[in-house]
Each structure stands twice: as C-alpha cells, then as structure tokens.
Design a protein that fits this description.
Number of domains: 2
Number of helices: 4
Helix content: 55-70%
Distance between the termini: 37 Å
Shape: elongated
Strand content: under 5%
C-alpha cells in the first residue's frame, strides 16, 4: 500500500504568483527559478534510451510489486496452514515462486539497462 501512495504525483502551487496564467509555459517563463525548471524537466532531452529505460523501470516496478504480493500471499497461506501438509506445501511453493519472480525482475532490469547503455553509448 505504501508503494502505491508514493507513485501518486504531487502538484505544488506557487504561492508567490509566478504563474498566474493557467496556460503558462514554465520552461519559457523568465520569472521561474532555474531549479524549478530543472525539476519540471525543461532542460532534459528525450532520447530513445532514456524513454525506454523509463518504460522498462515502470513495468518492472509493477511486476516487482506483484512478486512481493505473491510472496505475502504465500507467507499468509503457509502461516495459516494449521498443520495441513497440502496447504503448507502450497504456501512454501507460492513463497518460492514469488521470490524467484522478484529475482527475475531485478535481473531483467539490470540486463536491459546494461544492453541499452552498451547499444546507445
């Protein structure tokens, strides 16, 4: 739940009246401080490696959250098995599969980042 709350974008309102027009362009306004322009992404260029890394990070981040959820489900299943060998084994396997999924997600991110850096360097 905490991971989902950190993904929500936060919009800050300037209280010193720098942007009065709702259609104002932050990047072209001289009154806007450079740090705010940098935070808004005005000085960045969008390249294929940068965009692809961002998309891959988002997808693998979501898959990692799912893997952790599977691990939690496996742990709860194992904890509530009350001595039933079938439920206990099912919980252990679910926990193992969630862990393997998380490791695969982390390895996939590392491999893709390495390949993209090597190809587009």
């Amino acid at each position: 739940m905490f991971a989902l709350m950190t993904c929500v974008p936060v919009y800050a309102e300037l209280d010193d009246g720098i942007l009065n027009d709702s259609n104002a362009n932050v990047c072209e306004d001289e009154k806007v401080p450079e740090k705010l322009k940098e935070a808004a992404g005005c000085n960045t260029t969008k390249t294929l490696p940068g965009v692809s890394i961002t998309i891959i990070q988002a997808v693998l981040g979501l898959l990692s959250i799912v893997a952790v959820g599977v691990m939690v489900f496996g742990a709860v299943t194992y904890s509530t098995s009350t001595g039933d060998p079938g439920k206990s084994h099912k919980g252990q396997m679910t926990l193992l599969y969630g862990f393997v999924g998380l490791v695969i997600c982390l390895m996939a991110f590392a491999i893709v980042a390495f390949v993209i850096e090597g190809v587009f360097a």
